[in-house]
UniProtKB/TrEMBL annotation:
InterPro entries: FAR_NAD-bd, NAD(P)-bd_dom_sf. This is Male sterility protein. SUPFAM superfamilies: NAD(P)-binding Rossmann-fold domains. The lineage of its organism: Bacteria, Pseudomonadati, Pseudomonadota, Gammaproteobacteria, Enterobacterales. Residues 8-55 form the Thioester reductase (TE) domain. It comes from Photorhabdus temperata subsp. temperata Meg1.
Length: 62
């Protein structure tokens, strides 16, 4: 079976974080692209993703 790419929006929210975790556990996708809100002085979703998934390849595109 050919692995497919996945696009997930809201990956730092409650449901999105759960879905991202499940997608990463199954390893059934070639790449997982996530869309998150922008970084501001009070919120850094990129840092949260790096802390949670720093053990896997994480590429940030601005």
């Amino acid at each position: 079976m050919t692995k497919k790419n996945a696009l997930l929006t809201g990956a730092t929210g409650f449901i999105g974080a759960y879905m991202l975790d499940e997608l990463m556990k199954t390893k059934s996708h070639a790449k997982i692209f996530v869309v998150i809100r922008k970084v501001d002085q009070f919120n850094n979703p990129i840092k949260r993703l790096e802390e949670a998934y720093g053990h896997v390849l994480l590429k940030v595109i601005n």
